[in-house]
Write a structure and sequence with these properties.
alpha+beta, 497 residues, seven-stranded antiparallel β-sheet
């Protein structure tokens, strides 16, 4: 990185340069510093009359100003973390987006086109077009009348089978649905890029746990969420908003970072629709790395689909001939051996992963906590629509989920959780839910096992044995596969003479 202090340039600067060149107090308002790195990243600092420093940083076309000045010690710590390659150096301060006003049209809000979403939508459209050109003729051949068949587009021999055509058609449909979703989200981001900007203030910033139902008929899941609320003025009115991103789902791993970015009473920039100010957000940029993730997902999908098409089109038999399995296992029924063996190994691997996780959890430290919520949540699972209300009522299966929320402290910092067992949701009959609630009543002091590396991950009970069902099923499937291979006696799939 390149360090420039009051006109003096230091190429390939190191941490020692920062420690030597930056004083504890700013010499005056004329003191200037600029650290320039890769990917158009730069950090600037300017002295103040009170001896502190105003800090700003820019990445590409985006520029941010620190919400408060810092002293020389804080500036040195920030620059050292940046030089070390620590990407969390931004978390040391609170930042405000610097607005660039178009002088040619001062009355118009700034307009920006987000290239990442544009690139995602464009690449997805190209992928859909390419898939349609490849798969369309084959689907037409398979679905159309014989006199309308497009014989000029023959299917490759390695993929020529009806199951392969069905797999290809399903993959084409999935890519098309993904392209539509990406297009809708791209349109939403481009629309938000033309919204007005107002100064706001965070009035709520806390962590909470909510029951989230991902799909119709599914069991609800206790999910850790960030509760953010802010106030801003638009059209002579004070409005309140709670949406902070254009994304649909916020992973639990990002909750802590969101709360750090938006602490209570922090000033923020609010983007709002001038025609409907109630539609507002704090962030209008797509997530970092979304294009890379989409391309990786598409590549995995193409490889997986081609492999599956090859297997169902005679590839499994070719693989068996290559390995001489017919000679080595003359009495084997290879399709059953492959399917049962794969399913058995998958279940055994899943069992081992859960068992290793539970063994690590048994080493977790303990602390005391207090139950702050103890209730039963009733829900309906597996419902579907029918013509009469009576059949609809009969189609629903009622479930009961014990909700036990408890608080605890680790190193003086408060945490809360609703996990009774490690990373699992418990539900069942009403009697089961009532028995759990009876063990953990509101106000009761409980023993909490927590992960020392991630204290927000905790549980009240350890050592569940339900996953041993996976061990039994996996072992049975492996025995079934060995019998189909003729290793454990005569195969049940080979008729006896």
């Amino acid at each position: 990185m390149r360090l420039e202090i009051n006109g003096r340039v230091i190429d390939a600067s190191k941490e020692a340069d920062v420690s030597i060149q930056i004083p504890d107090r700013a010499p005056g308002a004329a003191w200037r510093l600029k650290l320039t790195g890769d990917k158009a990243l730069s950090i600037e600092a300017a002295g103040r009359a009170d001896g502190r420093f105003d800090v700003s940083h820019a990445a590409g076309r985006k520029a941010y100003d620190a919400s408060a000045p810092i002293d020389g010690h804080g500036l040195r710590a920030l620059l050292r973390r940046c030089l070390e390659g620590d990407k969390t150096w931004r978390n040391q301060l609170q930042w405000r987006r610097r607005q660039v006003v178009d002088q040619r049209r001062p009355s118009a809000p700034p307009v920006r086109t987000d290239s990442r979403w544009k690139t995602v939508a464009g690449n997805t459209a190209l992928g859909v077009l390419a898939t349609a050109l490849i798969a369309g003729p084959y689907l037409w051949n398979w679905l159309s009348l014989p006199r309308l068949r497009l014989d000029s587009f023959p299917m490759p021999t390695a993929f020529d089978s009806i199951p392969a055509r069905l797999i290809l058609g399903f993959f084409t449909l999935c890519v098309l649905v993904f392209a539509i979703a990406a297009g809708v989200k791209s349109w939403e981001v481009r629309k938000a890029a033309r919204w007005s900007i107002a100064n706001g203030r965070i009035v709520r910033s806390e962590q909470a746990i909510e029951l989230v139902r991902r799909g119709h008929g599914e069991m609800p899941v206790n999910t850790r969420v960030a509760k953010i609320a802010y106030e801003f003025e638009a059209g002579g009115r004070t409005l309140r908003g709670t949406r902070f991103t254009l994304g649909e789902i916020t992973p639990e791993s990002e909750v802590a970072g969101i709360l750090a970015r938006y602490p209570l009473n922090a000033p923020v920039d609010v983007y709002y629709d001038p025609e409907n100010p109630a539609e507002c957000t704090l962030e209008r940029d797509p997530p970092e790395g979304i294009l890379k993730g989409c391309l990786i997902l598409l590549a995995y999908g193409i490889v997986g689909v081609l492999g599956l098409m090859w297997l169902v089109s005679g590839g499994a038999r070719q693989l068996a001939d290559m390995l001489s399995l017919s000679d080595r296992l003359p009495g084997a029924f290879l399709p059953v051996v492959g399917m049962a063996g794969f399913a058995g190994l998958f279940l055994l691997g899943f069992f081992l992963a859960i068992e290793m996780r539970q063994r690590r959890a048994r080493q977790w430290p303990k602390t005391t906590g207090e139950v702050v919520l103890s209730t039963i949540h009733e829900y309906y699972q597996g419902s579907y629509r029918t013509e009469t209300p009576i059949s609809v009522a009969r189609s629903k299966r009622r479930g009961y989920m014990p909700i036990v929320e408890y608080t605890y402290k680790v190193m003086g910092r408060p945490y809360s959780s609703r996990h009774i067992q490690i990373e699992s949701q418990t539900a069942g009959s009403r009697s089961y839910a009532e028995s759990v609630i009876a063990r953990y009543g509101k106000g009761q002091v409980v023993t909490v096992h927590y992960n020392p590396e991630q204290p927000s991950q905790a549980a009240l009970e350890l050592g569940g044995r339900l996953h041993y069902v996976l061990l039994v099923l996996g072992a049975l499937l492996m025995l079934f596969a060995l019998n189909a291979a003729g290793i454990l006696g005569d195969s049940i799939f080979v008729p006896r003479r």
